[in-house]
Amino acid sequence: MAMSAVARDTVFALRRQIAKIEGTLPERLQAPSGCAPEAIPGKVRSSFPSGMAQNQTPSDAAGPDMTIVRRGLAVASADAFLHTGIDRLDAALGGGLPKAALSEIHGLETRDAGAVAGFALSLVSLVLREKQGLPILWVGTAEIFHEAGMPYARGLHALFGIEPGQLLFSEAPKLLDALWIAEEAARMTAFAAVILEIRGSQRLLDLTATRRLHARARSAGRPLLLLRQAGEADPTAAPVRLIVSAAPAASRETLAGPLAGSIGRPAFKVDIGKSRTALPGQFTLEWNPDEHAFAERTENSVAVVPASGRGADPAPASGAVLAFPALASPAVASAAAGDQPSRQQHPAHRSPRRAG
User: Fold this and answer.
1) Residue 67, SS3 per DSSP
2) Does the CA dihedral 138-140-142-148 come out positive or negative?
3) What is the spatial distance between Cα 293 and Cα 262, in angstroms, rounded to a whole number?
4) What is the pTM of this model?
């Protein structure tokens, strides 16, 4: 009986250690009967408000025989995260995007390349608030730049407040070269951030390659954004993966209300594919180009096509559409009388002849 109790205690301790290493969701693990949590070796302790028992949750949902396994997030300070300004998104990410880490921004289809690039530049704009004057390096292969294009210089300053001279591009002939450039650039503190854009599911972009990128970003204390276009959600060492696509733009807001026939701020649909807390979530974010900040949109809006800029007024609405002319033409009259076209008029009406 004593050996059975020791075995249960050992298995329980191992389960908590495995949960801590894997970084799973906060889980409630059943403690062995007759064994206090404090007596179990390797216990993962959690911080609770003063006056609350350590084996209780703030909602008193856990009994004395329950303990909570949490991630070791307390070791990271609040300054270690890039706050998006959206409280719900930052909370779901465990504080925000890690500054000194590899973060993956994934576009499921090629048509999402513009939204993925715009969202990445929005994050870079937030980074530049703290690292003003430092350039950004954008690394990619010739294939990705030819397929998705390159950012427009005037749009960089107008939408994101990024000077064209701050954004440097490195076009590599092969993916192996792009990975080497990004790895060497990520270890440098001369850049505010490094962007690596890759198209498709590449065999070279495996766990080993992404671990090296993540380690270089951590040692330099700089964010490294991995943009993956039109690829599968393959395993990477990035602690955060955001799936980004374009969202319908709402109408432009004025003092008199929404302006009909206008397109408002750019919007992004953001899904949390992977995070440090493993909490799922879906958000619709709008980017304010004047304040360089995100805003969350909760209502469902429909995209509105703006009026043409070539004319003063849009084209008038069309009138009634008739299937036949108002006045009967001779051809219509003969058809109504039952006349059929002759064989000379339509040779296709002739019966086919058999050969032989």
Assistant:
1) strand
2) negative
3) 21
4) 0.65
